[in-house]
Amino acid sequence: MKVVMRFAVILIFCFSSNCFFLSADTSSTSLLIETGIKLYENGDYEESLKLFDSGLDTIEDEESLITIHKYMALNYIAFNIKEKAYQEFKKIFVINPDFELEERYSPVVMKIYELAKLDSGKSGFLEILSEPAGADVYLDGEFFGSTPLKKELRFGRYFMELKLFGYKIYNKSIVMNSEQIFLDKIKLNETLFFSKFKEGVVLYEKGEYISALEIFFDVLVKTRKFPDVYIMIGLCYSKIPEMEFEGIEWIKKGISKSTEKKKGYMSLYDSYYNVEDYKAALNVLKKIETLENTVDISDWINSRKQILKEKGYI
Fold first, then answer.
1. Of 65, 121, 163, 272, whose CB neighbour count within 10 A is largest?
2. At 118, is the pLDDT very low, low, confident or very high (cuts 50, 70, 90)?
3. Model-level pTM?
4. Which pLDDT belongs to residue 23?
5. Nearest to residue 98, comparing CAs of 30, 155, 20?
6. Which domains does the chain have, with CATH numbers?
7. What is residue 177's predicted lDDT score, i.e. its pLDDT?
8. What sections of the chain are H helices per DSSP?
């Protein structure tokens, strides 16, 4: 009742054409809120702010407090005091992190509300699929994971980059503002040198080793940071008579430059086996067994062990 008595002067005004006095037996909280809203709707923003501010120390009901902070924000926006409006919306999210503002308000109101929502400390799940998979995802320059991924992320605005060797960097600004954001099938575009590299692989698979070598060396001129091109040069040489040992050296170069060495060592094993250096092939096989994540090639390893065993090297 203290709130009603304190603001009895401003609780007398017109609804439509009928004036009335808000009686003392009405709920003080409801009375304050209804009156404050009417003042706002009538454009009396200063009196509306004063009334709502008076209720903050005495009202404990969460729904009522949310309504008060919302209309205080709207009043501040009417005065173009956007920072205070932003702070009022933030207070709402402290009370209810799931608060949703009806979209009937102006773009200015919705923008300030969205900014406060992003800064509410809430989080959701960001799910990303890329084509091809295996792209590294960076948010604001920090590594976030590799595709496909589904990971919790705090609400906010982020600059996202997808990086995969041989493909152009994909970048996009994203807004994390819901329980789940799904970015489906982001298609990465090949760089020119990677497209050429794939042409060379096709030629190698057709048995056109000299033509494939020409392409691989052309790619090597453009980038020396691509371990697979060294390995493919080595594989081509290994198919050309009297160039097999040259091929082995190229494969070794590729392995030394690679962070994912499994494929390189498998090629090196085959090259040693083809020149009948079974002891060297066995040493490479032992090296492969020390690598992490070799479950997917366990059959390949076991078959090579069996072959070397039959030859008396195991």
1. 272
2. confident
3. 0.55
4. 38
5. 155
6. 2-118 (1.25.40), 123-187 (2.60.40.10), 192-310 (1.25.40.10)
7. 78
8. 2-6, 28-41, 45-55, 62-78, 82-95, 107-118, 192-205, 209-222, 227-238, 244-257, 262-274, 278-289, 298-310
